[in-house]
Amino acid sequence: MSAKPLLLVVACALVDTDRRVLIAQRPEGKSMAGLWEFPGGKVEPGETPEAALIRELHEELGIETKEACLAPLSFVSHAYENIHLLMPLYVCRRWQGTPEAREHIALKWVRPQALRDYPMPPADEPLIAALCDLL
Ligand SMILES: Nc1nc2c([nH]c(=O)n2[C@@H]2O[C@H](COP(=O)(O)OP(=O)(O)OP(=O)(O)O)[C@@H](O)[C@H]2O)c(=O)[nH]1
Known about the structure:
Number of domains: 1
Bound molecules: 8-OXO-guanosine-5'-triphosphate
Number of helices: 2
Largest sheet: 4 strands, mixed
Oligomer: single chain
CATH architecture: Alpha-Beta Complex
Order of helices and strands: EEEEHEEEH
Structural class: alpha+beta
Number of strands: 7
Shape: globular
Radius of gyration: 14 Å
CATH topology: Nucleoside Triphosphate Pyrophosphohydrolase
CATH superfamily: Nucleoside Triphosphate Pyrophosphohydrolase
Distance between the termini: 37 Å
CATH class: Alpha Beta
Helix content: 10-25%
């Protein structure tokens, strides 16, 4: 049995009209710096996953979306060294504003088949396959 704390993180695949997905590069000073991830973050106490994701998309990218525009796609359950990550991935195709890197080094729109060219956190691997199937 693992005694690691469970960490609930919500993540989002923003999908544009060309079926490309937005990934964001983690900054220096954070764990897994330099890796590319799906925008998102930890669900705070008292928050729903959807509210957390809407908040994170605003904080990280400066865009606005709403719950009706968030479709659950898949989730990962991944053992890191100190925590066990449970991370649902939502797909969002409708938002307002243009994503800008407010908390990341860079943003990139990538075709799902090309996601494997970008180093991502180990937990994310199964999500790439789910996005390739969807898109
Ligand atoms: N947003 C996001 N987080 C991910 C992904 N994959 C993955 O393992 N994570 C992990 O989920 C956690 C997200 O936390 P966060 O973004 O709110 O917090 P953070 O980077 O400031 O936290 P940290 O530096 O303490 O790890 C991190 O530990 C991050 O490494 C992903 O694709 N998107």
